[in-house]
């Protein structure tokens, strides 16, 4: 075993570790290691590093693994690296980076061969316009994230014609699956909430496609829209934010605005600020109900 302490020539050490690994044919993912202290066993191909550890991967793709963004840098207080398996285990102020994408946590495991990663302990992930916080998170080679434990996602929407001042959309739950390569698909299987400028949506099961601004919920659906002093619910909701905030409630659907109540098997509510929709009367089950004249800026319509 070779041992270096309090390295003065870290670059030389990193170069030796890398070149030894390459010549042995064990791994071609690691290109650099720096730390206050490094233990390297040439017989087993294992590296132990402590104290402000920095590791950089060369990002060479393995055959059969999808080409997607993976951590190119690992920073931590302590790192163990097995050149035979390609597994990196990190603990203490862990930071994984690839370009602008970042993930932090108390501990992490990353496989340089399969590109799978697992983080735990106060996890924070930032990717493009989305930030996710949770207790535990796993990520596979295809970008699929599984987050558990007090999960919260925040999407920042840039200013546009629809949102002159921008917008913020959030989703919460105890378990959230996120598929960034599928139109930013969010799946919340065991009770969650999605919020935006049009209101708060909760249900026993929820999912949405952030890029399309389309969301669904089933089981104990509840909608709260403070600007219109509106509450609504039903067995299921299909919400189309890009279509004037159209929310289609089905199965025991109901809606309350001020002191007025609507009930039916199917009810459509427009939550966006659209004066033309507001002038349209309310109907449920294709039968007239409370006169819309007394529903100020009525959002109801079949």
Span from first to last CA?
76 Å
> How many β-strand stretches?
22
CATH architecture: Sandwich
CATH structural class: Mainly Beta
pLDDT < 50 stretches: 1-28, 62-70, 275-302
Largest sheet: 6 strands, antiparallel, barrel
- Provide the CATH superfamily: Lipopolysaccharide (LPS) transport protein A like domain
Could you state the order of secondary-structure elements as H and E? EHEEEEEEEEEEEEEEEEEEHEEE
Rg measurement, Å: 26 Å
Class of secondary structure makeup: mainly beta
- Give the count of helical stretches: 2
Approximately what portion of the residues adopt beta-strand conformation?
Answer: over 45%
Enter the CATH topology name: lipopolysaccharide transport protein A fold
Explain what the structure shows.
There is one protein chain. With 302 residues, the protein is mainly β. The protein has a single domain, classed as Lipopolysaccharide (LPS) transport protein A like domain (lipopolysaccharide transport protein A fold, Sandwich). It contains two helices and 22 strands. The relative contact order is 0.07.
Task: Give a short synopsis of this structure.
Helix content is 6%, strand content 59%.
Quickly list its features.
mainly beta; 6-stranded antiparallel beta barrel; two-stranded antiparallel ribbon; disordered C terminus; lipopolysaccharide transport protein A fold; elongated; 302 residues
């Amino acid at each position: 075993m070779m041992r270096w302490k309090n390295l003065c020539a870290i670059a030389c050490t990193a170069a030796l570790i890398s070149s030894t690994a390459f010549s042995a044919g064990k791994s071609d993912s690691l290109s650099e290691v720096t730390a206050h202290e490094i233990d390297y066993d040439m017989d087993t191909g294992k590296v132990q590093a402590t104290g402000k550890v920095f590791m950089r991967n060369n990002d060479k793709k393995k055959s059969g693994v999808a080409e997607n963004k993976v951590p190119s840098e690992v920073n931590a207080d302590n790192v163990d690296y097995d050149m035979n398996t390609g597994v990196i285990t990190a603990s203490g102020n862990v930071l994984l980076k690839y370009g602008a994408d970042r993930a932090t946590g108390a501990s992490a495991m990353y496989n340089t061969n399969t590109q799978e990663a697992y983080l735990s302990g106060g996890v924070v992930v930032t990717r493009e316009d989305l930030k996710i916080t949770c207790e535990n998170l796993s990520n596979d080679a295809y970008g699929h994230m599984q987050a558990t434990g007090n999960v919260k996602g925040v999407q920042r929407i840039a200013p546009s014609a629809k949102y002159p001042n921008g917008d913020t959309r959030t989703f919460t739950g105890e378990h959230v699956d996120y598929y960034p390569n599928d139109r930013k698909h969010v799946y919340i299987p065991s009770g969650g909430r999605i919020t935006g400028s049009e209101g708060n949506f909760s249900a026993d099961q929820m999912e949405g496609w952030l890029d399309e601004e389309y969301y669904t919920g089933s089981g104990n659906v509840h909608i709260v829209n403070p600007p219109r002093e509106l509450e609504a619910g039903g067995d299921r909701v299909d919400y189309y934010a890009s279509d004037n905030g159209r929310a289609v409630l089905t199965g025991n659907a109901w809606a309350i605005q001020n002191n007025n109540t609507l009930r039916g098997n199917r009810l459509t509510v427009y939550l966006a600020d659209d004066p033309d929709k507001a002038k349209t009367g309310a109907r449920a089950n294709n039968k007239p109900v409370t006169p819309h004249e007394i529903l100020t800026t009525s959002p109801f319509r079949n």
